[in-house]
Write a structure and sequence with these properties.
about 0% strand; about 75% helix; 17 helices
Length: about 450
Amino acid sequence: MTSSNDAAPAPAAPPAPRRFALLPDLAPWRASRDFRRLWVAGLITNFGSFLTFVALPVQMKELTGSVVAVGAIGAVELVPLIVFGLYGGALADAWDKRALIVWSEVGQGVLCAGLLVNALLPEPLVWPLYLVAALSSALVAVQRPALDSIVPRIVPHEHLPAAASLNSLRWTVGGVAAPALAGVVVAYAGLGWAYAADLATFVVSVVLAVGLAPSPASHEAARPSLRSIAEGARYAWSRKELLGTYAVDLAAMFLAMPLALLPFLADELDAEWSLGLMYAALPAGSLLVTLTSGWTSRVHRHGRMVVLAAALWGLSVVAAGVVREVWLVLAFLVLGGAFDMVSGIFRAAMWNQTIPDELRGRLAGIELLSYSVGPQLGQVRAGSMAAWTSVRASVWAGGVLCVGAVGVLAVCLPRLMSYDVRTNEHAVRLRERRGGVG
């Protein structure tokens, strides 16, 4: 019993107001060893992959001199991406995710070795470039659903938006440094060195991925089959807010992705030296967002942010196609990359915080199609329109079409615009299931 002379307990102090942080939230990094290992492995392999990403179209341009041939790289990647993206999602639900990640990484290293051998020939061949592009696309389609669906298993539920930002940061660090370096390496050392560096990064990333903890299939997961793929598709169709994220991203990437035209745009601006910077500009904008992504955890209406960012991406591409000063082109590409990353962060947050574990792989396969098929088809669209009109017209017209398409989708998909992670029934259910906080 407390005597009357004892001091009464002081009232609890009110919680300190939460600061508007800009720096990335490192909670997933601190909480999960596997997330740290996966993040570092991804950083290393992404760095190498961006070297090849620049070197491959440059080599195709040197061998053929055709904008259509460069754009066709996207066409040969398309079918494997669609087929293996859907089946890869089913595999990610039914098989050990770590095994899928490791073996697909090994396969990518073998393909990179093939590009290196071809580049060292006295007269490099064209067909191996298309073959490797197709096979690499198939392996990406198998691996990516496993990578995406393993994150909710190794990161606490309340840290998933921060994990999406950190994964985006990992991608953009390689995306900024590697293309700029690749432009120098290709110009002064040769294509072989770019492919060799990529091969070395795959060796390191395989070693890191082997150390991940096993991630076996959920006991509720269906075996990989057409029926299980159809089940995932039906679930996606029933979730109009998810359907909206797929549709918006597909429209933005198909209509306004200018990557296939950058080698020709640099030539037209009499600034061949700027090609590496052009490839690095989009990831540079993304990097600026991820480095200041602390604010994203305090945004709740993710659907509206996806739509707004996609429309601003289109406007940035319009400006990049209209201006005639190379530094302004680079500036608008950086701006476009920033808006694209904002859209990507909130799409990933919606996916990770509302999709149940037993469907996560199959939905990740659909997600892969939404953000990968668009750029591949976009290369074909850009190359074909450039051949019909001009390089610059193909760039700005694609941006105009993007803005119009995103506006139509916003009107047609009200559930996307009204989505709120605090009240959405699927987000609430999964949060309670995983024991996360609001």
